[in-house]
Design a protein that fits this description.
- By secondary structure, the protein is α+β, with helices and mostly antiparallel strands.
- It has three helices and six strands; from the N terminus they run ββαβαβαββ.
- The chain has a single domain, classed as 60s Ribosomal Protein L30, Chain: A (2-Layer Sandwich), CATH 3.30.1330.70.
- The chain is 24% helix and 28% strand.
- Strands 1-6-4-5 form a four-stranded mixed beta sheet, covered by helices on one side.
- Helix 2 packs across helix 3.
- The longest helix has 17 residues.
- The radius of gyration is 20 Å and the shape is globular.
- The two termini are 30 Å apart.
């Protein structure tokens, strides 16, 4: 990857993708009066929305507006740092929830129209989850994919 920028966002990394689905009392009563099934309401937790907003704000502040947002294939390396518990003094890799793909989704959505035109332009993702003895954060490296990043050709059937 040809590195163009690196952004550090301090805070507890949050996933995006899991949404709470619920039915309010008012919706339930209205549906009963109308003789139909109630429609569920879907909402992301506030902490997720706050995290996506924070990542977007830091990216907007740190990225050069002459270069970004990129409207071409983009490479993104996201390293998520989680506070190391005292019970794991020798562990380096964080192998627990939240899922790496949902953490990446939050970063991808936060970077829309800031780091890249749309997260569909991200052609190369590298996601790592590790422990830190410092504050939790995510380090997002943005670049352009290079020929050396390509996998070998797909196997023949």
């Amino acid at each position: 990857m040809e590195v163009l920028a690196r952004v550090v966002v301090y805070g507890q990394p949050r996933p995006k993708g899991s949404r709470a689905v619920f039915i309010t009392d008012a919706a339930w009563k209205k549906a009963q009066r109308e003789g139909r099934k109630p429609l569920p309401v879907s909402k992301a937790p506030d902490s997720t929305e706050d995290w996506v907003r924070l990542v977007g704000q830091v990216m907007a502040r740190e990225l050069d507006r002459l270069t970004f947002p990129l409207d071409r294939p983009v490479a993104v390396d996201a390293v998520f740092y989680f506070t190391r518990p005292k019970s794991r003094p020798h562990d380096d890799w964080y192998g627990h929830a939240p899922d790496g793909d949902k953490l990446a989704r939050a970063v991808g959505d936060a970077g829309n129209k800031i780091g890249w035109k749309d997260d569909g332009r991200i052609a190369f993702w590298m996601i790592r989850k590790v422990y830190t003895d410092g504050p939790p954060c995510v380090v997002v490296t943005i670049g352009l994919p290079e020929a050396g990043d390509l996998p070998p050709a797909a196997p023949e059937p």
